[in-house]
């Protein structure tokens, strides 16, 4: 889900996120994405093969005022991306240079992070669908 959503964000195909992302998050994303420079937008995309590490940051079970039961999982992702970001962009962990072919052909990759929160209602009879309720790409989507 992270790879699919991040690529759709990068391509500005926000209308395809209606069933995956909460309405509130989608509203905020529409505003932020429209203001992003192309280089930052390109850096949002995480190819599934470029995801280096994932971990859960927080897992919560809670009930709303009507007694409905929810589970929320915050996932953290570290992914490599070849977007041409300016060198002064803080927040990245490391710049990798990968050599393909000979020494004169180098490709820079940056290890970027993203936090996505997934929520699902577990009340009996509720749809078994997960919704993304938070999307953070530090230093890119601020």
UniProtKB/TrEMBL annotation:
GO terms for cellular component: mitochondrial inner membrane. One of its GO terms (biological process) is protein insertion into mitochondrial inner membrane from matrix. GO terms for molecular function: ribosome binding. It comes from the Eukaryota. This is MAIP1 protein. It comes from Buceros rhinoceros silvestris. The lineage of its organism: Eukaryota, Metazoa, Chordata, Craniata, Vertebrata.
């Amino acid at each position: 889900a992270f790879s699919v959503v991040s690529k759709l964000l990068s391509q500005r195909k926000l209308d395809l996120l209606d069933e995956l992302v909460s309405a509130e998050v989608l509203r905020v994303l529409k505003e932020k994405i429209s203001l992003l420079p192309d280089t930052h937008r390109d850096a949002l995309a995480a190819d599934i093969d470029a995801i280096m590490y994932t971990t859960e940051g927080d897992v919560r079970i809670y009930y709303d005022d009507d007694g409905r039961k929810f589970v929320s999982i915050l996932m953290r992702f570290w992914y490599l991306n070849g977007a041409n970001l300016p060198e002064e962009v803080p927040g990245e962990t490391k710049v990798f240079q990968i050599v393909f072919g000979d020494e004169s052909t180098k490709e820079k990759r940056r290890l970027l992070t993203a936090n996505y929160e997934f929520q699902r209602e577990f009340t009996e009879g509720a749809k078994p669908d997960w919704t993304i309720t938070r999307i953070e790409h530090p230093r890119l989507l601020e």
